[in-house]
Design a protein that fits this description.
Blueprint (H helix, E strand, L loop, with lengths): L3 H23 L9 H11 L4 E9 L4 E14 L2 E11 L4 E8 L1 E2 L7 H6 L2 E5 L3 E5 L2
Length: 135
């Protein structure tokens, strides 16, 4: 039994795998590592800026309307304008919580004439309910 052909096959296979792995990893670009401060700064720069305005929601515990800070923006596609509620401010935690809720026009039939006369848009937000606002 001759060992030389088996050894040559194994050597050729090992050389081929070594060459392909070196070639494949040479195509991967170098990675630039960033500090935590740079990552936070880049994330803040990438976030779009939305218009901040006031909205009003009905608080069931006090049985009255309360004011809330909200961020909204309008988008236009195919000539139609859509308004989106992008964030609500929670004064208890001093933080904005992000949303992506589409706003609809306030209707005197479903919302009442008083709300329709005072507000143009409404959007649903979790933990708050329906928020009425003008944009």
């Amino acid at each position: 039994m001759d060992i030389k052909p088996i050894f040559m096959k194994k050597l050729f296979l090992f050389s081929f795998m070594l060459f392909t792995s070196v070639f494949a990893f040479s195509q991967v670009p170098f990675v630039r590592y960033q500090s935590a401060e740079e990552v936070v700064k880049n994330r803040q720069e990438d976030q779009p800026v939305f218009q901040q305005t006031a909205g009003y929601y009905f608080d069931r515990s006090s049985q009255g309307f309360k004011r809330i800070k909200i961020k909204v923006n309008a988008t236009s596609s195919f000539g139609l304008t859509s308004v989106y509620l992008r964030a609500c401010y929670n004064s208890d935690t001093d933080q904005w919580f992000g949303l992506n809720t589409r706003a609809v026009k306030v209707s005197p039939y479903s919302d009442g004439k008083t709300l329709a006369n005072n507000f143009e848009w409404k959007a649903d937000a979790p933990y708050v309910g329906t928020i009425y606002f003008n944009y």
